[in-house]
């Protein structure tokens, strides 16, 4: 297997010292923002009380863990990033940061987040956070990403853990409800990333990453997006069906799910890449909407 430090063609600029912006970019802030949001909703949904300071600490640890995962991912995949247009300007492939600096930063963040979660919140949440980081870095980044088109299907579990971790921060355990929240994000991940891979296919092919459209073609990718969307929508209805989300959420999940299915059908019927972009950006709004409504119902219900 290729390693990051031995395959990057670019050299670090000797006259450049990485700034705060470069370290921040290593954290994958856009991904981190979604992680933080779903974690906050998971915390809101969890039964029981949590001290505001402990709650803030738990969310901070989750954010740090997500940032550490992103940082270590960029360290290991710097050779791939250098070959793709949309990632070649990241700190390491652009030569603005030494790979070892990124490695040390990522490891330090990971260790600090897990230790802080264990010492200041609880051990269960700490173990789940450690599992998430290891799953993203070792299972997804190192093992799956370069080997199989199932990388997103299996690796998507890493992005589904945050609400479960936040739930455990409140309750000290893992319940069926938190597993359902995990399941929603887990099932959402393939159609979300496969729609991205349709219009970023040239980049993935250039980097030698076996994403589904590179390995199986765009037609099969479109069909798989539809299949996973059809499987995902019933899972999104489970919070309402199980009674830990209200009727407003149930209606929102049903209507927005129908729209997602319609977009996926359009993606299969029409080969125009604009439908892939529409599906990708809708999927972002879709997940945000589901969790926002779910959390809002709980907050309003407690206030009444």
Would you mind describing this structure in some detail?
By secondary structure, the protein is mostly helical. It folds into two domains: 19-174, UbiA prenyltransferase (Tetracycline Repressor, domain 2), CATH 1.10.357.140; 175-304, Four Helix Bundle (Hemerythrin (Met), subunit A). 77% of the residues lie in helices and 0% in strands. It is built from 17 helices and no strands. Helix 10 (162-171) runs antiparallel to helix 11. The chain is flat, with a radius of gyration of 20 Å. The model is unreliable at 1-10 (pLDDT under 50).
Quick structural summary:
By secondary structure, this protein is an all-alpha fold.
CATH homologous superfamily heading of the largest domain: UbiA prenyltransferase
The fold-level CATH name of the largest domain is Tetracycline Repressor, domain 2
Rg on CA atoms, Å: 20 Å
Beta-strand residue fraction? under 5%
Query: What order do the helices and strands follow?
Result: HHHHHHHHHHHHHHHHH
Shape assignment: flat
Q: Low-confidence parts, pLDDT < 50 over ≥5 residues?
A: 1-10
- End-to-end Cα distance, whole Å, is 58 Å
- The CATH class designation of the largest domain is Mainly Alpha
Task: Find the count of extended strands (DSSP E, 2+ residues).
Answer: 0
Helical amount among residues, as a percent range?
A: over 70%
Structural class: mainly alpha
List keywords for this structure.
304 residues, mainly alpha, Tetracycline Repressor, domain 2, Four Helix Bundle (Hemerythrin (Met), subunit A)
